[in-house]
Here is the input.
Amino acid sequence: MKIAMLAPVAWRTPPRKYGPWEQVASNITEGLVKRCFDVTLFATNDSITRGKLKSICKAGYEEDKSLDPKVEECMHISLLMEQAHEFEIIHNNFDFLPLTYSRLIKTPMVTTIHGFSSPKIIPVYRRYNDINHYVSISYADRSDQLKYIANVYNGIDPANFTFRKEHGDYLLYFGRIHHDKGTREAIEIALKAKKKLIIAGYIQDEEYYHEKVEPLIDGEQIIYTGNAGPEERDRLLGEAYVLLHPINFNEPFGLSVAESMFCGTPVIAFEKGSMPELIKKGKTGFLVNSIDQAVDAITQVKAINRAYCRQWAESNFSTDKMTEDYIEVYKKII
Here is the structure.
């Protein structure tokens, strides 16, 4: 089966640090190549894959600010669509824009919906309900206006995350610095619990960071380490006592939550979006609804079996499982 994998071009695939959609597109690609599928990854020119790589964008537009995002996106999507006839399946990880080509080509398209940036984009998906094949990444992130062929949880390569039975005593916030992700709330939890907090992540909202986060960073109890790459991410997650994930929005998935459990580190998250699907309450972490509840949950973390966290993650969120689930989707369509 010849598959075209369309990744976003904001960042390299796989990303050097931040870039969740690019990371998932990479994980699917490498999982399929491992099973001897003929996969062509459409991504930035500096991307890395064991499959074939085709590109027209020299780099991610978030990494090279001289590039115009819309120009890069249009060039990138059209590069694939002009050779769509060469493939049996197109797997779109690029949101809604590629859907606008789907009536102009004969190759079937699978679209993984990595989240809705706004309800305003749903009409685009709805318009192509009859011809596309939508996959959700959690049941919590489904729209009742769309038809889905499957739900496939994002998959992570267990080899990239080290299980650690022993751990440190710090709390960890790992994710983009933004109100949606609850960076300030994580700080408030740590201060109230009188615990050390390490913050690692990409500053997505500069104003939010300078107004809500930076004033509370003292370098001792509240520490910001910057945007972590793969090795640093593995160490920070694995050595943490618990990951704090006090989100302020209905998150579609949450890669850092699954990555944390791969390291054996439990998670305390606000009970929103996909969190009840990712976290097994009392077994791999706790679902809470307030800062005070999160503080109380910290005292219960010691009862969590870190080995079970790893087992849960491997059973539900591994690259192997995700790849097999997508192969079943392709078979249904073909």
